[in-house]
Amino acid sequence: MGALPDNAGGTILVVEDDEACRKMLQRLLRSHGWTVCGAVNGKDAVSLYTAVRPDVVLTDINMPGGDGNSLIAELQRTDPGVCILAMTGLSRQDLRVDQALRRGARSVLSKPFDGAALEQAIRSALHPAR
Question: Strand pairing of 84-88 and 56-60?
């Protein structure tokens, strides 16, 4: 995977309850020059978002302790310009996937996804006119 564009000084908040998945995503994103922080649930993510104000929030939809859709809605209330990408192992036909998009996620990545798909989703979310 090539270097992510325009990421100097950029910050990504990864919200994922699966520790191995969260750490893998954090390592991948750091390897491309991003500053990355992680949260295990929506409650922790709201606190981190307020403190850090990341450029992108990458959140799982299906999590205990504050699901991704509740997090998306809360972040949209806090900052209507927030850039959110959702990810899920749910079927694309699951209502929670559609709900994530309606609440403000710019796109939904289906797990498992590869680094190139993540790169493209971040690039498209940050620079939609490109």
Answer: parallel
